[in-house]
């Protein structure tokens, strides 16, 4: 019954399903989600109605753990990339970044390493201030996936560029995030053994910035 409803042409029905997804997704088999539900949900990424597009983006938070490699690492990320950079709605661009940060744990490690930093730095260039803040907060929330060399050569330079951002909220998030990254790099510098214990030279432990990354959602 639920599967058939996802194929409905009625936007109100699809909207309600997307809003209630978190309450029944655990009862669905991964095969059902991937073969029957996700293809219908994915149509929402292209919907002309901004509300449907935004709800579709948010729904991936609940679907991600059940999606197969191709649906998550190829299809979802393809749509996310387009929405984050081209959607006319600032709120959708913002929430796409937020959701990418929240599903990062489910991405394939090689895809995650390739995609996250570029996506979050792109968000930091957005003309919409909340989107820039989302990029900053997403970097902080996913920092355990970044190599030390990436922090030093890609992330910190990008963050420093925004210490003069026109919006104080963005600047505040940037300064807190920079301090967090620098503090962890300094600890590694002072204690070489810590670098080895981190494994593959990644930063572990969370940098706390503000309350949490899902504030805009």
From TrEMBL:
Domain of life: Eukaryota
Stretches of the chain forming a coiled coil according to its record: none
InterPro entries linked: ARM-like (IPR011989), ARM-type_fold (IPR016024), CIK-Related_Protein (IPR051177)
Protein name: Condensin complex subunit 1 C-terminal domain-containing protein
Native species: Homalodisca liturata
Lineage: Eukaryota, Metazoa, Ecdysozoa, Arthropoda, Hexapoda
């Amino acid at each position: 019954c639920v599967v058939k409803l996802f194929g409905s042409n009625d936007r109100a029905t699809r909207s309600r399903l997307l809003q209630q997804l978190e309450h029944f997704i655990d009862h669905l088999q991964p095969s059902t989600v991937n073969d029957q539900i996700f293809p219908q949900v994915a149509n929402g990424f292209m919907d002309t109605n901004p509300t449907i597009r935004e709800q579709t983006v948010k729904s991936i938070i609940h679907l991600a753990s059940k999606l197969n490699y191709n649906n998550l690492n190829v299809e979802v990320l393809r749509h996310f990339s387009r929405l984050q950079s081209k959607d006319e709605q600032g709120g959708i661009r913002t929430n796409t970044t937020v959701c990418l940060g929240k599903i990062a744990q489910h991405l394939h490690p090689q895809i995650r390493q390739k995609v996250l930093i570029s996506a979050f730095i792109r968000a930091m260039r957005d003309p919409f201030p909340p989107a820039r803040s989302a990029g900053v907060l997403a970097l902080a929330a996913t920092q355990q996936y970044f190599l030390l060399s990436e922090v030093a050569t890609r992330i910190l330079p990008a963050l420093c560029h925004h210490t003069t951002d026109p919006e104080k909220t963005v600047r505040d998030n940037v300064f807190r995030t920079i301090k967090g990254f620098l503090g962890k790099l300094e600890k590694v510098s002072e204690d070489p053994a810590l670098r080895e214990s981190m494994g593959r030279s990644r930063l572990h432990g969370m940098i706390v910035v503000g309350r949490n990354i899902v504030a805009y959602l």
